[in-house]
Recover the amino acids of this structure.
């Protein structure tokens, strides 16, 4: 008798521990390409299911015919739904599964080819066309080089006394990037302060002028971000200096792969990160869908 086979199928849950029980090995297989899924699930594990907003997450894994996990999904409203790499057929399968589940999708982000395949499949399945709303590039640190010349000043890890500043700057970053606010700057600052996850660059008189965050390390990888300098202080080298210092500190702490995303619409930041040693891994795209 022939062994029974099953078509690939999506399995969904809102329980991060259940999701990781089945999907962790897959996510760890490519820490660079799976950085968002790794860091977001780590925050859900640490901070609870509403770490990103008022609704619980949707987590999913694509189980292939041989029983292995071939892709992963996460959705933490109000942010876009994200998946790892999908073939065009897998994108079609996902659209069908989401429609059967009755799960609303107003945004989708992934590597560019996957995002394009999903947008096309979503339009075929719903009649709703997607609008390209953002393009990013994922970089990995190759060999760190401090910017030259460095601006005057020094880097230091932010502490509790900096909480209000971090909230203001996080809100400024969110506004500049056009991102949804999620739980807000206060929750973000509290979590980052809990593990020393923000570094400030300050002038010789002790005035903070720029910040760079870093995520907790998961599967040997961590991701730099957000990087923010107030508009009136830009163009003085502060962002490059603080990014280089937080990168060096992460390497000294044993991070194996150090990653960051940039907005492809911002040539200044893309050139900056390449100058200090970051190299392209892949391009990402985000689509919006009308409700």
């Amino acid at each position: 008798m022939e062994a029974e086979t099953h078509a690939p199928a999506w399995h969904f849950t809102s329980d991060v521990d259940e999701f990781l029980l089945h999907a962790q090995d897959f996510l760890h297989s490519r820490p660079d390409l799976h950085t968002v899924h790794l860091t977001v699930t780590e925050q859900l594990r640490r901070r609870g299911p509403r770490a990103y907003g008022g609704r619980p997450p949707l987590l999913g894994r694509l189980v292939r015919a041989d029983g292995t996990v071939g892709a992963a999904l996460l959705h933490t409203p109000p942010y876009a739904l994200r998946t790892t790499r999908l073939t065009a057929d897998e994108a079609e399968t996902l659209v069908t599964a989401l429609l059967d589940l009755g799960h609303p999708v107003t945004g989708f982000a992934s590597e560019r080819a996957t995002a394009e395949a999903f947008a096309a499949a979503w339009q075929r399945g719903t009649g709703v066309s997607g609008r390209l709303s953002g393009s990013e590039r994922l970089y990995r640190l190759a060999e760190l080089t401090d910017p030259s010349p460095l601006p005057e000043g020094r880097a230091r890890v932010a502490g509790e006394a900096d909480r209000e500043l971090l909230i203001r700057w996080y809100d400024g970053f969110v506004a500049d990037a056009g991102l949804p606010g999620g739980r807000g700057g206060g929750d973000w600052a509290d979590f980052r302060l809990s593990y020393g996850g923000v570094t400030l660059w300050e002038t010789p008189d002790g005035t903070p002028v720029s910040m760079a965050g870093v995520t907790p390390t998961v599967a040997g990888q961590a991701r730099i971000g957000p990087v923010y300098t107030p508009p009136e202080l830009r163009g003085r080298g502060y962002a490059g200096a603080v990014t280089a210092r937080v990168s060096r500190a992460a390497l000294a702490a044993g991070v194996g792969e150090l990653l960051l995303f940039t907005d492809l619409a911002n040539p200044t930041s893309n050139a900056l990160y390449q100058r200090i040693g970051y190299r392209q891994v892949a391009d990402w795209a985000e689509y919006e869908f009308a409700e």
Q: What stands out?
A: The first strand starts at residue 9 and ends at 13. Helices lie at 16-29, 35-47, 88-101, 112-126, 163-177, 185-194, 238-252, 267-275. DSSP finds eight helices and twelve strands in the chain. The two ends are 49 Å apart (CA to CA).
